[in-house]
Amino acid sequence: MFKKGISEEFVQALKKWNHWEEIIRDRDLFVAIRDESINVYFQGCSLFKISCDGELSLETHYKYLVRPNLENPYLSWVGDTPPVDDLGQTILTKTFDIASLKKSSRWYAEPEKAGLHQILKYNDNIVDLEVVLSHKSDDEATGKDWEGKSRRVADRIDFAAVQKKDGLPFIVFFEAKRFANPELRSRKPEPPVVGQIRKYESFMQKHRSEMETSYRRVCQNLVDLGLPNRYDSRVKEVAESPERLAIDPEVRLVVFDFDEDQRVGKIWKEHKKKLSDHLGNRLLLKGSPSEFKSGISK
């Protein structure tokens, strides 16, 4: 099953929340609408999740609550017991502070996700991030449980954008990889990322109707939440004429973070040819993630 969107009650609760204006004004934050919840991202990190069951509730990882500017971040002790009993009072922020959350999260921003953050900033038609494509819920989509036992990881595609083809709006999906990612390379004819994309496309074919319904609702939510100025006119067009929106069944591959020597290297050319043979013009390459403008916004 694939389901996204939030209720009118949820929309109104957010608009009354005193931090909502701060969130939608901050161009470094990305709002991703889930099924009756919202994740707010910064530099690829999900800073916090918002839900609404009569009233708004927030959830975040404790690591983002560590105060980033402690005067003295060191602890000292004698013996085997660190003085941790009162740490919650001294090292954790006591108020909801978006600036503090952003600073604390920088330690956890992986290079690939940080690059994706640049793409988000330069393309105002991107409407979703870390899209779960599986029967598992968003909350079940991590790799190990609290005991360290492995469990099934949900398939996630990096982002989705609204594009137009022949005058009609489509949701187009993108997988993003840094040049150094080993999934782009293989001695075999098919690099691992191609199989990954094929798996995504198989899911999309089976759940196309659910996905179209979901993204029609997401675009309407974004407009109702006061976010149309963060997005280009195509998002508003979908909200006004939702029946025209469709899902593009072919996933694009975005590759970034390489220099000129790497781009023209003999070994890479062989791997690039394999990718091109499978993906054709759906393979998008730029040395810097900030260069991705026309390839995604087009």
Multimer state = single chain
Shape: globular
**Topology as H/E string?**
HHEEEEHHHEEEHHHEEHHEH
Structural class: alpha/beta
Domain count, please report it: 1
In whole angstroms, the N-to-C terminal distance is 30 Å
Helix content: 25-40%
Number of strands: 10
Task: Extract low-pLDDT stretches.
Answer: 137-152
Number of helices, counting only DSSP H or I runs of 4 residues or more: 11
- Beta-strand content bin: 15-25%
Query: Compute the gyration radius: what is it?
Result: 21 Å
**Mean pLDDT, all residues:** 89
Largest sheet: 6 strands, mixed
Question: Would you mind describing this structure in some detail?
Answer:
The protein is globular and about 60 Å long. The protein has helices spanning 8-16, 20-25, 87-91, 98-105, 111-122, 192-206, 208-224, 233-240, 260-264, 266-279, 294-297, and strands at residues 30-33, 37-42, 45-52, 56-59, 126-132, 156-165, 168-178, 246-247, 252-256, 283-286. Helix content is 35%, strand content 20%. It has one domain (8-143, 153-297).
Main traits of this protein?
alpha/beta; 6-stranded mixed sheet; 35% helix
Topology overview:
Elements lengths: L7 H9 L3 H6 L4 E4 L3 E6 L2 E8 L3 E4 L27 H5 L6 H8 L5 H12 L3 E7 L23 E10 L2 E11 L13 H15 L1 H17 L8 H8 L5 E2 L4 E5 L3 H5 L1 H14 L3 E4 L7 H4 L1
